[in-house]
Amino acid sequence: MEIGLAAALKGLRTELAEAALDAEGDPVRLLVESVDLELQVAVTDATEAGGGVKFWVVSLDGKVSGSTAVTHTVKLQLSAETVAGDRVRTGSRDGRRTPAADD
C-alpha cells in the first residue's frame, strides 16, 4: 500500500484533533509544543502517472512498488495550531470543556 506524504500528514492532523476532542473534560491538560516527525520516504519519478516527482511513505516491509525509487529519511519539525492560530491543547486547565474559537 502506497501512502503519499500529504496523506500521512493529514492523518497526523486528524489524530491530533481527535486527541484534543477525546481529552475534553479531563482534569489534566497537555499542550502540544512541537511535533517531530521522522519518515522513510521513497522518491519516484512518476512520468507514467501524469508527471512530476512523488513522495511515498515507506511501509514497514520497506518495499516500494513501481518504477525506480530512491529512499530517504525526511525529518519534519512541525508546530500544531488551531484554525485561529492558537496552540493545540488537549483538555482544559480546570477539567471543564475547552471553548472552541467560535464559542
Number of helices: 1
Strand content: 25-35%
* Count of distinct strands: 6
Average pLDDT, all residues? 75
Structural class comes to alpha+beta
Helix content: 10-25%
Following the backbone from N to C, one meets helices and strands in this order, namely EHEEEEE
Largest sheet: 4 strands, antiparallel
Query: What is the topology, as strand order, of the major beta sheet?
Result: 1-4-3-5
Radius of gyration equals 18 Å
Uncertain runs with pLDDT below 50, 5 residues or more?
A: none
**N-C termini distance:** 41 Å
Quaternary: single chain
Apparent shape: elongated
Summed up:
The protein is built from one helix and six strands. The protein is α+β, with helices and mostly antiparallel strands and 103 residues long.
Quick tags:
about 100 residues, alpha+beta, 4-stranded antiparallel sheet, two-stranded antiparallel sheet
Describe the protein in words:
It is a single chain. The chain has 103 residues and is an alpha+beta fold. The protein is built from one helix and six strands. It has one helix at residues 5-22; strands spanning 3-4, 30-31, 35-45, 53-57, 69-78, 89-90. A hairpin with a 7-residue loop joins strand 3 (35-45) and strand 4 (53-57). It is elongated and about 50 Å long.
Topology:
Blueprint: E1 3-4, H1 5-22, E2 30-31, E3 35-45, E4 53-57, E5 69-78, E6 89-90
Antiparallel strand pairs: 1-4, 2-6, 3-4, 3-5
